[in-house]
């Protein structure tokens, strides 16, 4: 089955009868024009103007605010430094996107729902269980839809995996072994140098990274987690593991600049880890292009004149370099690495989140389920192995591509599905599916919502329980 056929099973856009006039686009405010708000949702609105239009923005960073306002033709009177004055105005739009950092989610999301907006709120919905519950209650009291950005539910990969399990093809499901293999350089970027490195300043990594996985596992099995235990900690990214003589910053004359995998210019200017991952795990043209980029970037640049899709690689400006510098040219990136957080030695940061954690869970259907998360994977990707009484599934969901393989016990038959999404579609197609699903849901009054706050709450409560289990060394029952 090809990608186009796969896309037929996820929402590809609003549904309406062709004899009816097309509905007008949903209107929205953006709170937080950062990587997610501007780069993901903003880009979707620019490429799907029939579905959604941003009419106001709140963002303290003047450059980000101005760029978003220009891209979306937002007049000066609808541009704000922060969300409070924006949400104090009479209602301006159908929806509000809350894309601030983790600990800044609750207040604007509550205010937006109380002001009459439906809300798309980034994950994690909040950093305490109490705030998560308050968000769900407010959504239900105000009757406003609150969607959490659990993008995996909208990926062709996990939709197909769920379909296989629910079809009964595996027989009785006995055990699930799910791994969130965070690539070593992604770990260093987000959880050692970056925004989610410190529990007190953001949230525990099992919440920040794995609320997605804790959401998808019960959804795949149609079962609830009844109890869990957890172990893990921060093993590697610590001062005592620093190479001898390593300075606080990579560019301050590090003696192991040529051999350390975490050397910041290697990750952010050469970008080799990203291209290698796509070259290794991708397929077709993206794989070939990424392979060429690792050896002869000038060739990709030349060919991109005739094949505009190659500019996705030759002129790459996306994550993670878009986080390091607003305008990620090599010169700007080097300047940012000299003074900013992403140029720090990974052994000399103020990080305290774990780099490995295992959660063992008992599910209501009797299944045992483990989630292993770690930040030392060579290639990024979620792997899932499911043992059933009649067949086994193994699957890979990764940066360059995704697949599922079913092996039947009796016949020995192997069936392999390519569940890759277009490389342009972030999170394996999940970002686009989520946006289309949100627009559908607003137009249909919530009927098609797949990521409601009440559904998301369960995964968040599981994450808080897993962190308590790890820190306190206990088994936690999920009520
Ligand atoms: N769904 C996913 O898979 C996924 C992936 C990555 C990040 N996230 C989540 O998305 C959220 C945003 O992450 P990001 O990487 O875009 O962060 P970011 O730092 O790039 O963006 C956050 C923006 O909020 C702005 N902001 C701060 N205070 C504000 C205020 N008072 N009013 C309005 N804006 C304000 C900041 O200036 C910044 O531009 C985080 O909660 C993160 O965990 C989700």
Quick gist of this model?
The protein has 19 helices and 15 strands. With 479 residues, the protein is an alpha/beta fold.
Features:
37% helix, globular, six-stranded parallel sheet, Dihydrodipicolinate Reductase, domain 2, 3 domains, alpha/beta, 20% strand, 19 helices, binds nicotinamide-adenine-dinucleotide, Rossmann fold, 479 residues
Describe the structure.
- Strand 13 and strand 14 (414-418) form a beta hairpin.
- The chain has 3 domains: 3-150, Rossmann fold (3-Layer(aba) Sandwich), CATH 3.40.50.720; 153-238 and 350-427 and 452-477, Dihydrodipicolinate Reductase, domain 2; 259-343, no CATH class.
- The longest helix is centred in the last third of the chain and has 20 residues, at 453-472.
- Helix 10 crosses helix 19.
- It has 479 residues and is an alpha/beta fold.
- The chain has helices at 3-7, 35-47, 62-71, 83-88, 106-114, 129-142, 156-166, 184-192, 205-208, 211-221, 264-268, 272-281, 284-295, 297-303, 311-314, 321-324, 330-339, 430-443, 453-472; strands at residues 26-31, 52-58, 79-80, 95-98, 118-121, 146-148, 173-183, 225-233, 356-363, 368-377, 381-388, 391-398, 402-408, 414-418, 476-477.
- Bound molecules: nicotinamide-adenine-dinucleotide (NAD).
- Residues 31-37, 58-61, 64, 82-83, 99-102, 104, 122-123, 149, 151, 208, 427 line the site of nicotinamide-adenine-dinucleotide.
